Amino acid sequence: MAEQEHHAELIKGIAEQMKILLKESKEAIYIYFDDAHKVCNKKFADLLGYKSPKAWADAEVPLSDVLEEDQQKVINAYMNASEKGVAGSINVKMQNIKTGEIQKINMIIAPTIYEGHIFTVHFFSKIWGFLK
Asked: What strand order describes the sheet that includes 88-95?
């Protein structure tokens, strides 16, 4: 099996395993393997103005929703989770692609394992928002 195909199977598998959490959580959530292999719940897609979770997952621009000033914080938190197994919480500003609203978000990022591969799970809570 080619690597991309294998990664697609992995993201489908973890999404199925975490289906109840993605569907029933009161928080916006996404699960990340790499830029091309990620999944989110409807609450996350709605928070950022995407038509659907699939529309967000199909977007291939990493960190495009995070304001540039906070992108390095997200990268550092991801590296801590994926390479060191350290969960963390950071506040970042994100922009809704439909409305342009800038929102301050608390992001909790934690590592998880599925079939021997490290994924990160991201939980989002809106702190405040205003129109740009």
From this structure: 37-40, 28-34, 117-130, 102-114, 88-95
Query: DSSP 3-state assignment of 86?
Result: coil
Distance CA(42)–CA(27), nearest Å, equals 10
pTM for this model (two decimals): 0.91
Beta strands in the chain (DSSP E): 28-34, 37-40, 88-95, 102-114, 117-130
Contact call for residues 116 and 131 (beta carbons, < 8 A): no
Residue type present at position 60: E
Bridge partner residues of 34 (DSSP): 37
Task: Tally DSSP H helices, then E strands, for the chain.
Answer: 5, 5
In whole angstroms, give the CA distance from residue 87 to residue 67.
Answer: 22
Structure tokens at 67: 């304001």
CATH number at residue 39: 3.30.450.20
Give me the domain span that covers residue 38: 3-130
Give the three-state DSSP class for 87: coil
pLDDT in tens, 112-122: 999 999 999 99
CA-CA distance, 122 to 48, in Å (whole number)?
14
